[in-house]
Write a structure and sequence with these properties.
Blueprint: E1 6-7, E2 17-18, H1 27-55, H2 61-88, E3 114-115, E4 118-119, H3 120-142, H4 148-171, H5 175-179, H6 187-205, H7 221-240, H8 248-276, H9 281-295, H10 304-328, H11 337-355, H12 371-403, H13 410-415, H14 417-422
Antiparallel strand pairs: 1-2, 3-4
C-alpha cells in the first residue's frame, strides 16, 4: 500500500506512523474533511446569518438570524430520517432519480464504515452541511416578508423534493452524474437550486411594501462584511473539501476558489466605481460571493488562469443580472440570490465544461469526450436543474399556502418580523 504521508505524534518521543490504516482509512483525508465540515457549517452559522442579517433593515435582523438557525435544525432532522438515504442510498428501490429508502435513520452507519478513505460518518456530516446551507441561501429571496411557519414547512418539503433528488442526480449515482456532468462542489446542486427557488418564491410572495419606490438599504454593513469574511474562509472547506481527500485536487480547488473570489470582488467594485464614481463595500462583498459561487462547480477541474477569467465573468455578468432583475424586471429578490447564486452557478457549470480542457490548464476531459460534447452535458445539467427546481418550488409554495398563509400581513411587515414573529428585538439600545 502506497504511503501517502506520516503523522508526527504530539510527543516528541513518539514514533512516526503511516497515514493509511490497515482497514483503508486515511488519517490525512479524514482530518481534512473533518475540518472542511466545520468550515462549511461555519458558513451558515454564523457566516451567512450575519451576511444576510446586516443586509436587511434593523427591524428584521433577528428574524433572518433565526431563520438560518432554524433551517439548520430542520435540515439536520430530515437528513437523519430520510435525507441521506434519498441523496446517497444505493440499495433497495434506488434508481437514477433517487437513492431509495435503504438508509433511513442512517441505517448501517457504524464507526468503522468507510466512504472511500474516510469514515462514512464524516462523509455524511460533510454532505449534511451542504443540505443545510442551500435552503438557508433561499432566505435572501423572501427576506422581510414570509411567515416563520411557512418558511419551516417550505424548507422541509423543498429539501425532500428538490435538493435531495438533485443531489442524487449529480453526486449520488444518478442520471446526471452517469452522463458525466462536471459539478465539483455544487453549481447545480446548491447554487442553481437555491437561486431559482429564491426568485420563484420572491415572485409568488410579491415585492416588499414600498419596493422599488423606497430605498431599502442594509442596516449594518459591518455585520455584513464580517459574515462575508466568514463565507470566504468557509468556502475553502466547501470547495477544497469536496475533493474528499487531502491532496492535489483539494489544493488546486482551494487556490482557484480564492483567485475567483478576489477577481469577482475586484470586478464588481470597479464596475460600480466607473458607474457611480465610488466603490461600495456592499458591491465588493457581493462580487466576492458571485466569484465564489461561480467557481464552485469548476473548482476541482480548472487551473489558476481559468479562475481569473471565471471571477471576471462572475463579477461582470452577475452584476448585470442584478441590475436587470431589480431595476428592469422589478422583482424583489431581496438579497440578490438568483443573480448571484443562480446565474453564477449556471455560468460556473458551463465554464467547467470549457476550462476543464488540459490545453487550458484544466484537469482534462474524459477519454473520447470533446469540449463540445462536455458543454452539451453541462447545458443539460443546467436546464434540467432550473426546470425541476422552478416547477417543484412553485408547487411546494402552493401546497404550503393551503395550510398556512405564506406572507405576513401589512401591519406585521411594517412593524418588522423581529417583534411580530418572535417578540424579540435584534437591538435593545
Amino acid at each position: 500500500m502506497k504511503r501517502l504521508g506520516l503523522f508526527v505524534s504530539l510527543s516528541a518521543l513518539a514514533p512516526l506512523s503511516n497515514a493509511i490504516a490497515d482497514d483503508g482509512l486515511n488519517g490525512a483525508d479524514t482530518a481534512w474533511i473533518l475540518t472542511s465540515t466545520a468550515l462549511v457549517l461555519f458558513m451558515t452559522l454564523p457566516g451567512l446569518a450575519l451576511f444576510y442579517g446586516g443586509l436587511v433593515r434593523s427591524k428584521n435582523v433577528l428574524s433572518v438570524l433565526m431563520q438560518c438557525f432554524a433551517i439548520t435544525c430542520v435540515a439536520t432532522i430530515i437528513w437523519v430520517i430520510v435525507g441521506y438515504s434519498i441523496a446517497f442510498g444505493d440499495g433497495g428501490n434506488a434508481n437514477a432519480v433517487w437513492g431509495g429508502l435503504s438508509r433511513v435513520f442512517l441505517a448501517d452507519m457504524s464507526r468503522t464504515a468507510l466512504a472511500g478513505s474516510i469514515p462514512e460518518t464524516v462523509f455524511s456530516m460533510f454532505q449534511l452541511t451542504f443540505a443545510i446551507i442551500t435552503p438557508a441561501l433561499i432566505v435572501g429571496g423572501f427576506a422581510e416578508r414570509m411567515r416563520f411557519s411557512a418558511i419551516l414547512m417550505f424548507s422541509a418539503i423543498w429539501l425532500l423534493l428538490v435538493y435531495l433528488p438533485v443531489c442524487h442526480w449529480v453526486w449520488g449515482g444518478g442520471w446526471l452524474g452517469e452522463m458525466g456532468l462536471l459539478d465539483f462542489a455544487g453549481g447545480t446542486v446548491v447554487h442553481i437550486t437555491a437561486g431559482v427557488a429564491a426568485i420563484v418564491t420572491a415572485m409568488v410572495l410579491g415585492n416588499r411594501r414600498g419596493f422599488p419606490r423606497s430605498a431599502m438599504m442594509p442596516h449594518n454593513m459591518t455585520m455584513t462584511i464580517t459574515g462575508a469574511g466568514m463565507l470566504w474562509v468557509g468556502w475553502f472547506g466547501f470547495n477544497a473539501g469536496s475533493a474528499l481527500s487531502a491532496g492535489g485536487d483539494a489544493g488546486m480547488a482551494m487556490l482557484v476558489t480564492h483567485i475567483s473570489a478576489a477577481m469577482g470582488a475586484f470586478t464588481w467594485m470597479m464596475i460600480e466605481w466607473k458607474r457611480y464614481g465610488k466603490p461600495s463595500a456592499l458591491g465588493a462583498v457581493t462580487g466576492m460571493v458571485a466569484g465564489l459561487g461561480t467557481i464552485t462547480p469548476a473548482s476541482g477541474f480548472v487551473g489558476p488562469v481559468a479562475a481569473l477569467f471565471i471571477g471576471l465573468a462572475a463579477g461582470a455578468i452577475c452584476y448585470t443580472a442584478t441590475v436587470f432583475i431589480k431595476q428592469r424586471l422589478q422583482i424583489d429578490d431581496s438579497l440578490d440570490v438568483f443573480p448571484v447564486h443562480g446565474v453564477g452557478g449556471a455560468l460556473g457549470t458551463l465554464s467547467a465544461g470549457i476550462f476543464v480542457a488540459s490545453e487550458l490548464g484544466g484537469a482534462g476531459l474524459a477519454e473520447g469526450v470533446s469540449t463540445g460534447q462536455q458543454l452539451g452535458v453541462q447545458l443539460i445539467g443546467v436546464v434540467a436543474t432550473i426546470t425541476w427546481t422552478a416547477f417543484a418550488t412553485y408547487l411546494i409554495l402552493k401546497l404550503v399556502s393551503i395550510f398556512v398563509e405564506l406572507r405576513v400581513n401589512e401591519e406585521d411587515e411594517t412593524v418588522g418580523l423581529d417583534l411580530t414573529a418572535h417578540e424579540e428585538s435584534g437591538y435593545n439600545l
